[in-house]
Amino acid sequence: MYRGLGFVTGTGQIPFIGTVRLLASPNPDTAIALVALSMENRAFTFQPGGAGYTAAYRVEVSLRRDTTLARRVVRDGRAVVANYLQSRGTEDSVVFQDVVPVAAGRYRLAIVVSDRNGPNVGRYDGTFAVPEFRPPALSTPIAVDRADPRPDLAAMPDMVVNPRATVDFGSDSLRFYVEGYSLAAGSAVVATVLDSAGDVGWADTTHIARTGPLDPMVVAVAPQALSLGRHELRVGLAGGDVVAVAPFLVALSGDWVVGSWREMLSLLRYFTADDTLQALARTPPADRAAAWRKFYRETDPAHATSENEALDTYFARMVQANELFRDEGVPGWLTDRGEVYVTLGPPAQMLDERPDFRGRGRTLVWIYDQPHLELYFVDQSGFGRLRLSTGSRSDFQLLVNRLRRGS
Fold first, then answer.
1. Considering only CA atoms, which of 73, 36, 34, 39 is closest in space to residue 56?
2. Structural domain harbouring 350
3. pLDDT (0 to 100) of residue 324
4. Residue 263, in any domain of the structure
5. Are 168 and 47 in the same domain?
6. Cα–Cα distance, 110 to 63 (Å, whole number)
7. Would you call 386 helix, strand, or coil by DSSP?
8. Helix 390-406, helix 336-344: angle, nearest 10
9. What are the DSSP E strand ranges found in 116-169?
10. In the prediction, which pLDDT does 359 show?
11. Are residues 4 and 127 located together in one domain of the fold?
C-alpha cells in the first residue's frame, strides 16, 4: 500500500518506509531535500549497555544523474530501548531523518540502510525529481509530529517528521507542514482531503496576512472526519493552478494498515463476537469514528493507559502467526493454527505426531493449561494443510464463547 502511494519503500533484511520532501532554498535552482525513514526495532542488532539496549545503523543516500554521482550523504544513527523485549518489537520506533541540498533536475535515488552490529541491509532504488521553486509556489506537505516554522529560506528545517504519514483512526490530528513562497497578501490557501473514492472528507482555508518570500503554515487534519484507508491532502491557492499534493493513511493501528472499514472488521474476526462486528458493519460512515472509539474503550482492559492492551496483544499475535504459519499458502493468521494462536496465544506444550494407527496424517497437538484444553490439528490431505479435528473445533469454540461471555 505504501509503495502504491509513492512512499520510499526499502526491501531486504531491513525493510523501511519513508518520504523525501522538498523545501525551497535562497537559490531557486537548489532545494533542500528532507529524507525521513521509519524502521522496525527487530531489524537491528541491539546490544546491552548503559541504561538499556542500543543499536547502531548507517544510512547512505545517493543521487545520480545518468551515471554521474551528483550527491552522496552517509549518516550514522543509534536507537536505544529500555529492555530486550522492546528490541524485538515490530513497532516502527527507529526513525531517521536528515537534510540533503540538491540542485533542480531528475535523479536516480538510492538509499541503503545497514546494521552496524550485524549483517542486515535494506535498499531502495527509484526516480526522484527536484523542481525549481519559482514563485508563487507551495512546498509539498510534510507529515510531522512537530514543526517550528523556518524564519527564512536560508534556515534549515526544525521538525520531527512522520515518515509514514499515518494516523490512527479516530485519534488526534495529523499535522502537515507547508511553505508558501512569495504569496500575495490576502491569498487564500485551501487544504482539502480526498478519500480513495475522490470524495471530500475535510477542508479548511488559511489566508496569507502579508507578502514575503516565505509563508510557513501547519495544516491539522482531524481524522475523526475521515474513513479508514488511503487519502490525499491537496493544498492550493484559491482560484489558481498552484497545487501541492501529499498522500497519507488513516490506519487501524501501527501494525495493520487497512484500506476500508470492511477490511478492518475482517481483521477483528477473532477478537470479538459476531454480533458486535455486525453492529459495527451497520454503522453509517459519519458515525464510524465515534463507534470505533466506543468499541476501543469498551474492549480496553486498562483504562488508565492510552493504549488498548487487548488490541495490541491481538495484533502482535497476528504478526507472529503470519511468521510462524506461512507454509499453507495463505496468511498465517487465516490458518486454523493461526486462529487458535491469535485467540488464545501460544500453547503450553506442542507435540508433533506422525501418521498414527487410525490412518490419520500428520497430527499436531496443542495443550493449554489455563484453562485446560487439548487441540488436535490434522493433515488429512497430506499436503501440509493442518485443520482442527471436528472434536477440537467444537471444544475450541465452546471455550471462546465462554471467555467472551465472561469478558
1. 39
2. 310-406
3. 92
4. no
5. no
6. 7
7. coil
8. 30
9. 121-130, 137-138, 142-148, 158-161, 166-168
10. 47
11. yes
Looking at the fold, whether 151 and 106 belong to one and the same domain comes out as no
Read off the pLDDT of residues 144-185 as tens digits, 9 standing for 90 and up: 999 999 999 999 999 999 999 988 776 668 899 999 999 999
Q: Which three cell numbers stand for residue 162?
A: 512522520
DSSP string covering 273-298? -HHHHHHHHTS-GGGHHHHHHHHHHH
Number of domains composing the chain: 3
Within a domain: residue 251? yes
The three-state secondary structure class of 399 is helix
**CATH assignment at residue 17:** 2.60.40.10
Say how many Å lie between the first and final Cα of the chain, rounded: 35
pLDDT per residue as tens digits for the range 72-122 = 999 999 988 888 777 776 565 789 999 999 999 999 999 999 999 999 999
8 Å CB contact between 280 and 265: yes
Question: Domain for residue 178, yes or no?
Answer: yes
Residues 119 and 9 in one domain: yes
Residues with Cβ within 8 Å of 41's Cβ and at least 6 positions away in sequence, in order, are 55, 79, 81, 86, 87, 88, 89, 90, 91, 93, 94
Query: Are residues 109 and 10 in contact, defined by beta-carbon separation less than 8 angstroms?
Result: no
Supply 228's cell numbers. 479508514
Residue 90's pLDDT is what? Answer: 59
CA distances from 162 to 64, 88, 117, 198, 290 (A): 26, 22, 26, 24, 25
Q: Is residue 267 part of a domain?
A: no
**DSSP string spanning 197-213?**
TS-EEEEEEEE--S--S
User: Same domain, yes or no, for 140 and 15?
Assistant: no
Task: Say if residue 9 is exposed, middle or buried (CB neighbours under 10 Å; 0-12, 13-18, 19+).
Answer: middle
The answer on 197 and 315 residing in a single domain is: no
Domain boundary residue among 256, 277, 300?
Answer: 256
